[in-house]
Amino acid sequence: MLSPVTDADGAPFWEYAARGELRVQACADCAEPRFPPRPCCPHCQSFASEWLPVSGRGRVWSYVVPHPPLLPDYAARAPYNVVLVELADAPRIRLVGNVVSGPGAPLNSCDPGGIRIGAPVRVVFSGGLPQWVLA
Ligand code: ZN
Predict the structure, then answer these.
(1) What separation in Å is there between the alpha carbon of 132 and the centre of ligand 1?
(2) What gap in Å lies between CA 134 and CA 117, rounded to an integer?
(3) 83: β partners
(4) 68 pLDDT band (50/70/90 cuts)?
(5) Which residues pair with 134 in a beta bridge?
(6) What value, to the nearest 5°, has the Cα angle with vertex 119 and ends 114 and 123?
(7) Across 28-32, 45-49, 109-113, least confident range
(8) For the chain, percent helix, then strand, then coil, each to nearest 5?
(9) Between 43 and 74, residue with greater pLDDT
(10) For ion ligand 1, residues whose CB falls within 5 Å
(11) What is the dihedral of CA 98, 24, 62, 130, to 10 degrees?
(12) How much distance in Å is there from the Cα of 45 to the middle of ligand 1?
């Protein structure tokens, strides 16, 4: 599995995820959540930020089912899905991930035919990686 590449702005996202918490960066002045994490608020230009806990509920905003040719590590896992999840608590934020059958389940554990745009999902964590299950 590919490991997340972190930077100073995004490191807290992964630290919370490692503890099983989904949080998004938000402006400490105007409260607007933002993603990806970055130093400055695009709405009010404040540099003050905080990490807002979110419910982990969302819906599939879009998805793809990659087909060969794929990188060798992924070819063995096909068919799998890659989803864009719109967070219920922060609808302007969409996180890239995978729908799996449960926490720790393999990448190809969910039949891509069961995924629909708009389907409700909730977050699960596998080794500090946020993934999604159909709700
Ligand atoms: Zn702001």
Answers:
(1) 29
(2) 12
(3) 63, 97
(4) confident
(5) 121
(6) 100
(7) 109-113
(8) 10, 35, 55
(9) 43
(10) 27, 29-30, 41, 43-44, 46
(11) 10
(12) 6
| 34 CA → ligand 1 middle, Å | 9
Kindly give the distance from the C-alpha atom of residue 54 to the centroid of ligand 1, in angstroms, as a whole number: 18
Residue 49: beta bridge partners? Answer: 27
- CA within 13 Å, CB half, 70: 14
The tokens of 49 are what?
Answer: 């930020």
Question: Residue 3 above 80 pLDDT?
Answer: no
Considering only residues 57 and 112, tell me which one the structure prediction assigns the higher pLDDT.
57
pLDDT at 73: 86
Give this prediction's pTM.
Answer: 0.91
Q: Is the pLDDT of residue 1 over 60?
A: no
Q: Looking at the DSSP assignment, which residues form a beta bridge with residue 99?
A: 132
Q: Are strands 23-27 and 49-53 parallel, antiparallel or unpaired?
A: antiparallel
Contacts of 31 (CB under 8 A, 6+ apart): none
- At 2 the pLDDT is 62
Centre of ligand 1 from the C-alpha of residue 83, in Å? 28
Cα 37 to middle of ligand 1, angstroms: 13
Average pLDDT, the chain: 94
